Amino acid sequence: MRSSHARVAFISPCDYTGHSNYDQVNYLGAIPLELEKYIGVIVHRADLKLNNYYQKVVNPFDITVDQWEILVILWENEGITQKDIAERLYKDQTNIARMLFKLEKKGFVHRVTHETDRRSLRVYLTSKGREIKDEILAPSLEAYRKTIKGLTEEEVETFRRLLSVIHNNVKDL
After folding, report:
1. Which residue from 132, 164, 131 is spatially nearest to 68, judged by alpha carbons?
2. Could you tell me if 136 and 60 lie in one domain?
């Protein structure tokens, strides 16, 4: 009996060449042409929900999720440049500068001209930026626990590794 779902041997949403490889066909099998089966769609949907949830977590601190990410980086390594932050977050420097301006306006960070490169700015936490860490940490960790609920530590590490592989596969495409 034939399945009611349209299927292809190898062509995936990322392969428009139509070229087939026997090993890949055996590995992948037939890929259903159902929207919900595409990894990119699933990851995007999860990202939207996660971002909305995490925004609710950080709202009481008058910051965005993107600003929270910058603060986390600075709690790890204060005094890095705006460019370093942009590279670490895979965001363009203009957006990072805009976010830093808002964080600076709120009193969480301050920027200082780089000692050897006047075009570059180093970013430092203010006392308010350091003090908020303890306040934000508890709800952030609780949100993380809720996010991974039902997964073992090994499954979480495997998931991180698999997402990293997918990222590396598409980062330069």
Report:
1. 132
2. yes
Residue 173 has pLDDT above 80, yes or no: yes
* pLDDT band per the 50, 70, 90 thresholds, residue 30: low
Identity at 67, one-letter amino acid code: Q
- The enclosing domain of 111 has a CATH number of 1.10.10.10
Query: Mean pLDDT over residues 51-71, rounded?
Result: 96
Kindly report, residue by residue over 86-97, the tens digit of the pLDDT. Answer: 999 999 999 999
Q: What is the gyration radius of the CA atoms in the chain, in angstroms?
A: 21
What residues make up the domain containing 149? 38-170
Which structure tokens are listed for 113?
Answer: 């001209």
Q: What's the first-to-final CA gap in the chain, in angstroms? A: 39
Please tell me what DSSP assigns to residue 14: T
**Prediction pTM value:** 0.77
| Beta-carbon contacts of residue 140 (< 8 Å; ≥ 6 apart) | 57, 58, 68
Same domain, 76 and 97: yes
CA distance 53 to 152: 21
SS3 category, 111? strand
